[in-house]
Specification:
2 domains; single chain; 4-stranded antiparallel sheet; alpha+beta; elongated
Amino acid sequence: MKLASISKETIALGSFALLLIAGATWYFAFKTPNVSSFAECAEAGHEVTASFPRQCRTPDGRTFTEEIGFDDAASVEGVALGKAVNLQEGGFATYEDGLKISIERFTDSRCPKDVQCIWEGELGTNVRLEGGDVEGVLRLVLGVKQNPVGIGFGYRVTLENMTETVATLRVEKSPQE
């Protein structure tokens, strides 16, 4: 009889220990600190997507979207090669070497907010290069295809960031042409 009572106590103690471990695991796995922004979510180490703009998801299902701020510019003159510029659709930048780039059009095929889509979509722009013996268009895209760099006409144009209204571009001489 004594053997059975020890066995019951051992089972009860073991069950309590398992419940305690399971509860602690659940608490730490799903504990979400007071997160109210993308920055706080990312800093807490939660999942950050590679979308544009980036999104952070908490274990309890909340999603925070990165806010991208720009100083909008319609046109900029005398820009040094290698310096990033922000341009609106239809805007242009003239560089010290005489190159002029202009934004021909923006495209936005991203999934609307609060809609479940099969494909994430992308933001893109056509950039026209003109000046001297240079004339042509490069297509730059942020999204699934991730083609944010265009090389052509002696230049490398990088689409560093983009919203529905502003593109951040960096133009450098291309060593590959």
